[in-house]
Prior knowledge:
A: mainly alpha, two-stranded parallel ribbon, C: globular, transmembrane (chain A)
Amino acid sequence: MIKVSPKIKRILVPIISIIAGFLVGAIIMLIWNYNPIQAYSSMFASALGNMNGIGETIREASPLIFTAIGFAIASKAGFFNIGLPGQAQAGWLTSIWIVLAYPNMPKIILLPLAIIVGTIAGALVAGVAGYLRAQFGTNEVITTIMLNYIVLYTCQYLMQQVMSPNLRIDTDTTKNISSNGSLKINWLTNMFGGSRINAGIFLALVAIIIYWFLMKKTTMGFEIKSVGANPFASRYAGMSSKKNIILSMLLSGSFAGLGGVVQGLGTYQNYFTQTTSLDIGWDGLSVALLGGSTTIGILLAAILFSILKIGGLGMQTIAGIPYEIVSIVIAAIIFFVAISYVIGLLFKTKDKKNNYQQPQRKERGPNNGIDGSNIEVGKKGQI
Amino acid sequence: MEKETKNIIEMRHIVKDFNGFKANNNINLTLQKGEILALLGENGAGKSTLMRILSGLLEPTAGEIYVRGKKVDIKDPTVAKNLGIGMVHQHFMLMESFTVLENIILGHESTKGPILDLKKAAKQVSALAKRYGLTLDLNARVADITVAQQQKVEILKVLYRGADILIFDEPTAVLTPQEVTEFIKILKGLAKEGKSIILITHKLEEIKEAADRVIVIRAGKSVGTFDVAAVSDDRLAELMVGRHVNMTLTKPQVKAGKEILNVKDLHVKDNRGIMAVKGLSFAIHAGEILGLAGIDGNGQDELVEAITGLRHVTSGSVIINNKDMTNQKVRKITEAGVAHIPADRQKYGLILQFPLADNLALQTYYRPPLSKHAIINHKAIHEHAEKLIKQFDIRTTSATLLASDLSGGNQQKAIIARELDLKSDLIIAFQPTRGLDVGAIEYIHKQLLAQRSAGKAILLISYELDEIMQLSDRIVVLHDGQASGEVKPEETSNKELGLLMTGAKTEGTNHD
Amino acid sequence: MNIVTTLALIVSSTFVYSAPLILTALGGVYSENSGIVNIGLEGIMTMGAFSSIVFNLTFASTFGKATPWIGALVGGICGLTFSLLHAVATINFHANHVISGTVLNLMAPPLGVFLIKAIYDKGQTENITQNFGYFTIPGLANIPIIGPIFFKNTSAPAWCAILISILLWWVLYKTRFGLRLRSCGENPQAADTMGIHVYAMRYAGVLISGFMGGLGGAVFAEAISGNFSVSTIVGQGFMALAAVIFGKWNPLGAMWASLFFGFAQSLSIIGNQLPLISKIPSVYMQIAPYVITVVVLVLFFGKSVAPAADGVNYIKSK
């Protein structure tokens, strides 16, 4: 057993999880006769080996940072917002729609307007789950999942039946947006070898700072964390659980919606019909889990997963290995993060505390993620 | 041939080490056939650990156990069961949604193939219940029966498993004085039938009444075994605590002042929507401690939650400092002058994953000096914490230590520090000393009396009758959501309180 | 269309869409009654669907008409194997049940597609030739009115699922195993003191849910989708989970709830054949099952009580 300080242990857990995740991917590739070394090296080479690759990686990371913050805020408040894909999709479609509808509005108005509308759309979708949770105690895990599908099909319908044909190329793709509503920055694109990198990354960095400030410095953040850590004590201390539930879900959805906005106004410059829930939602969830919902963690994890995702495309072309291995590796990493207890067993922390606590036989464990990871919740009304 | 021995159990040199903390440190214990042996010690002295070892729930770090003269290795509860050892836990080990019968037979079911044979089981359990005078409705759901009945379920459970060595962990903590008397009768009946009994307790009078011998444990070590008849209460108390304890508190004369809290015809529903407080009225004045006695579950939780704004008041009113505070928000009520020491400190009183400093700021974080314009001032929070740590003598390495790393006594001190620092006119103390050792209890009692002297009104809710009797100026007894009587501590007895707690007398009856 | 044929159409398509939900929800009932929340049912269904399709495509010529049935068993076994991940993570390694379940959901679709690509060199499979199809129960189908509606051209897996529901209800409430399983979801600490092996019981709960979820996914694939792709299972696992709650954690309750959700799902498919409903824009029919799931949860969630220790990890201290 290796002795480390608790701080180092916190860093070791994700690092070991990442290594283990890559190993799982390697084993699966070996079983199916692919060469994992070739796979991983082509992956890193195409993601980081040239300016275009680096640009694309940064571009990929921007929406993930937003969706990860979205997941992190909800999870600080004790909710498992699994509806990030739907919230992001709502942000994407609405922001594109606004820009398409008013292509000639000055950039200084149009761009912020589109961003705000997209943010609100994401917030509203998450807000439904927050409201139902606050008012009726409905489990947000299932409502947000169901909302993903509702948004998915509603967007299909809006696209095909409601949107003016003038704004579309065909029933499944919109026209490209005007530069007045775009996040594209020409010098940045040129600098990174013509990649789709855009102003989204700057917005994402601002979002990280806002997230840090909100959680560390404001009473709002303090209340959100309190409600998440112990809803009973928070209520006892005069915090309104209903207000905080709805507020945190609105915030969470806002950030997820922003992720969709950046994807639309930045990456694609248009909207096209989706058939499954958005990847950036699921990947954002993974980013937040790997990054432990900390600011630095989210940033680093977003970059790592972007390398995987952008490099995965290169890997598929160069080494001929199915792209899905990337998602398998990501899922495996999250699996190891989830069982961090075992990784923790490998390392003993040097404890400073001298107060002894009787070991509890019954863990104050999760109850479907409803009320935070460490709270034993009451019997009524939970899954 | 085994040597014939009177000792049915011998535990020798038992050590239990939890990561460097010795919960049991070289304890010896012998239990003789047919006797009732009391295991006396403070909260946290290591009594429960020792008994969990004996019942196979924990493995000792060192030491030997002999049952009926034979050395045994009790590595799990099944081994204990096969040796005839059964334990009735302090927190009942029951499945609330299961029936009484299902609870009793679980793990020891009579079956036809894989199918439960409930009829046969019911017959066996009924016979057993009759023999030991433990009458119960076997088909009732455990969630629907009283605590005293649940205890009978627990006893039947161990008897059904054929136990002849019975361990009871703090069995009377939840019972009324009358139920305690009945329980001790059952206990003696069991001993007479040849069962050997270990009774874990920290109540001296019970030992006097029930036990033959007593073993005293302090800080993980045994400090002696005595015949109950040959040792005085004072001596036992001293051995248990390790120093001379003054068991009587001196209560200074305080003149009651103006009315602080007035509760009028209060009706409150519980979680299931059933009326739990049914028309309760009382008032508390400055410089007065009102004790609220009663059995757990007679509306205490709902009453406290209604006064503090945590629960909706169906009808009636709560007047605090002459202002109507019925159904106001929690924070507004706190600011109107209410401090609240909650019954469950880990669930309601603290956020265990947060540092001590944040926990001490839980009631005041949102206003200056701890925050300004919704921005938190971490330096102010830290200074606030340092001040309270010093003032209330909270033992911690630093203000940044997590609340979960504090001992139970210091967790309670932290809550008391935070609440008393609000300088509220009304202090609601709900089970303020639950699970604490004598030193911490003394400290908290002194703090409450000091607040009384400072002219605060105090509502003390406790299931410990001794605590109520010692501290209160007046006692209201709660039964089924109503006041079944109001008495003065110097004019009443535990027996009378016990009767009131079961609703035997109603208000207005003369006390003799 | 007369009433009987309309009803027959509704009932048979309801049955077709309910069968996977019933089977999967039954798994959820067992897992949650043992104390493990299993949000990974969706992923388990995906693995069941994947493996049964691969089996079906490979062995259709060997087993003929029996292929989908054997394929369903293969799906069940694959689901069971996959659920081992969740069991190990939550029972031995104290993982948060929701996160662990989410990992199954994240893992299954790419794993399935990866393997499809590795085996067939393309992103989705061919359609199977041996599917469950429709089935007429001899004898019962001849009963007037009821026969044509319920027993003629109906779904054999659905009737099997209903029979399994009754069997699993009986096991859960009438046998020693059921009593012990429920005790671990109610109060694992107490169960442990009664000498019940909590970990073993919880493993049983999760593995049963893995088998049933795999079965459900396989039935969905072999009766409805007919092939496997990344979008074969879209939310059915979560609907099954909702059915567990709506059905109050009781096998028969979950069965009725699944039939209800199956009805909602089938409406979006057969809606255009029904006189009144065909006028409603298709989007409403498409989102109806999901909206109804949410509405049902809102209305019934507070009123049903989960096993007390559902989702609470149990750590034995020694």
